[in-house]
Amino acid sequence: MQSYISYANVIYIYLLLLLLLLLLLLLLLLLLLLLLLLLLLLLLLLLLLLLLLLLNYYYYYYYYYYYYYYYYYYYYYYYYYYYYYYYFYNYYYFFNYYYYYYYYYYYYYYYYYYYYYYYYYYYYYYFLYYYY
User: Fold this and answer.
1) Which residue spans traverse the membrane (predicted)?
2) What does the alpha-carbon distance between residue 21 and residue 15 come to, in Å, rounded to a whole number?
């Protein structure tokens, strides 16, 4: 009778040790799943960071692309505006210069003409006066 109880106690002890081992394995499995979940979250976080970096890169890429694009075309049209502005400005002064040149030229001959005209009439009346 005594040995039967002792075998039963040994079986219970082995069953308790087996149950404890199963609980430890279950705890280890849960810890492994938790570690896997943390690694998965870390991987998602890294992917999100990579996505943000790529979006940031493309943002600045397109930002600077369009910035320099509009900057370039702004100064392109600015340059051509002032090019044609000074072009017509120079032609304006060019024709203005010739306009005044011919204007003074015309008045020079105009006064020259009237100078000889008065000179002619002066001598005409002078000879008329002395002739008669």
Assistant:
1) 12-33, 40-60, 112-131
2) 10
Tens digit of each residue's pLDDT (9 = 90 or more) over 21-44: 999 999 999 999 999 999 999 999
- How many Å apart are CA 48 and CA 40, to the nearest integer? 12
Q: What is the DSSP string of the chain?
A: -HHHHHHHHHHHHHHHHHHHHHHHHHHHHHHHHHHHHHHHHHHHHHHHHHHHHHHHHHHHHHHHHHHHHHHHHHHHHHHHHHHHHHHHHHHHHHHHHHHHHHHHHHHHHHHHHHHHHHHHHHHHHHHHHHH-
Q: What is the pLDDT of residues 91-127, one digit of tens each?
A: 777 777 778 888 888 888 888 888 888 888 888 887 7
| Residue of 44, 24, 42 lying closest to 32 (CA atoms) | 24
